[in-house]
Specification:
Length: about 210
């Protein structure tokens, strides 16, 4: 079995070991203090788990260290023993391989540093993707919102101008109506006056024809 497959069999199991509540709470607190996003609904991705295990594999220390100790713990997990006994039994095996508590702790911290380094690389890539996929689009969204606001302001201004123009249109219509009525009234008055005078003259002409001799 390759080193990667052994790592995967050790770290990835169908039924994960029970983690006491107080330990889980401490880990959650540590993640928050380390500015690691905590999302209880998030699920591990095979892609990222494999990537992290590959990084551990490529930085595997020589000799019996935490990884071999972890494998021993996994081998003992099927046996009927409590957690303390299992850890001490695996440690007894480790000591026969020349390992001690400090060596196991130091190697475990080494692999944690490897993971931290991978986290740093991921964060750099994440920031770039955040800039490319989110912030750049957010800038375009802000520009679009600004454009919409300007156009809405222009529409509002045009609506006000249309409203004023309609008022002016009504005033002009009234002025035309009044002017038309005034002109018509003047016309009617003229023709009435014309008829009044012309009719008198016409009547006098008729009378003169009738009464006057040549």
């Amino acid at each position: 079995m390759s080193m990667f497959k052994r790592l995967k069999s050790v770290f990835i199991v169908e039924d994960e070991d029970y983690v006491p509540t107080e330990i889980a709470e401490d880990e959650s607190k540590e993640k928050k203090e380390a500015n690691i996003p905590v999302n209880e609904n998030a699920k591990a991705s095979d892609k990222f788990v494999n990537s992290l295990l590959r990084a551990i594999e490529s930085n595997n220390l020589e000799g019996f260290d935490y990884l071999e100790y972890k494998q021993s713990l996994k081998s003992l997990s099927s046996m009927d023993m409590d957690e303390s006994t299992r850890f001490n039994s695996a440690f007894a095996m480790a000591k026969t391989m020349g390992a001690d508590k400090k060596a196991l702790m130091d190697s475990a911290m080494h692999y944690l540093k490897v993971l931290e380094n991978e986290k740093g690389k991921f964060n750099d890539a994440y920031e770039k993707q955040q800039q490319k996929q989110v912030i750049a689009r957010q800038d375009k969204l802000t520009a679009l919102e600004s454009s919409i606001s300007k156009k809405e302001a222009q529409i509002k201004k045009l609506q006000e101008e249309i409203k004023q123009s309609k008022k002016e249109l009504e005033i002009r219509k009234n002025e035309i109506s009044e002017a038309s009525e005034k002109v018509a009234r003047t016309r009617d008055q003229f023709y009435a006056s014309f008829s009044k005078v012309a009719d008198q003259i016409t009547a006098d002409v008729d009378r003169m024809k009738k009464y006057l001799n040549s």
